[in-house]
Amino acid sequence: MTLTPAVLVKRTLFYIAVVAVVVVAVFPFYYAIITSFATGTDLFRVQYWPHSITFANYVNVFTTGSFPRNLLNSVFVAAVVVLLALILAVTASYALSRVRFRGRSLLLLTILSVSMFPQVAVLAGLFEVIRFFGLFNSLWSLVFSYTIFTLPFTVWVLTTFMRDLPIEIEEAAIVDGATPWIIIRRVFMPLMWPALVTTGLLAFIAAWNEFLFALTFTSSNATRTVTVAIALLSGNTPHEIPWGPIMAASVIVTVPLVVLVLIFQRKIISGLTAGGVKG
Fold it and tell me: For residue 170, is it within any domain?
């Protein structure tokens, strides 16, 4: 098949655009990796290929300060947030998609509207709530606040997905004597894995990367997460800032997210496109 000049130009421009987008998206992470292996004056030299590789920055990150503890804090908070968000979102989506009651659409729009408020707009009020319940400077304050901001998105996505599931499956389960909880656990959840993986991973990323709440609601190294720990690695002048350890810590924090996305990329695509085509 011979391509016409017009089609050839379009394809060439398309691939150029794709390459440009990939470079812009990947280059900052690539440069962070290179810098994380540099020490001394090499940190202030612009180089796009590592001339020498040393793991001193990574050793420094794990042996000084409380970064390992902060890393475990982030893992705990993100994992608990995902677990709570999915449990609450699955049950809520079942009620919003299958149970008929007055004001259902209004309630769903209200849930979605919660996510439209910026974090800084509710920061003062949420701080007072957390202090009232005695959660300040604890990991549960982050679990509480992250779950509040994660639920609207997870409920909306899972409700949309559950609406597209055939009603005949649920009716057959009801005929067999299944309760609503059994229908959710044994009928719907096996069919909802793409949506569950997508919403769970996005909730994990949001909790893992969050900074404002983590900075406000924690005040000690024992309860800080990695985002705050990295931000506190600083000096008085640019030459005093430990760029090597900062880059090493950034790479350590970013790699798990990249690995998770690569592992579940097929489920993510299925979950995002579910319900988009009907017929």
Answer: yes
26 and 161, same domain (yes or no): no
What is the rounded CA–CA span in Å between residue 66 and residue 52? 28
Residues 96-155 have pLDDT tens digits of 887 777 877 788 788 777 777 788 888 888 999 999 999 999 999 999 999 988 888 888
Task: Please tell me whether residues 135 and 159 are part of one structural domain.
Answer: yes
Same domain membership, residue 155 and residue 33:
no
Range of the domain at 44: 5-54
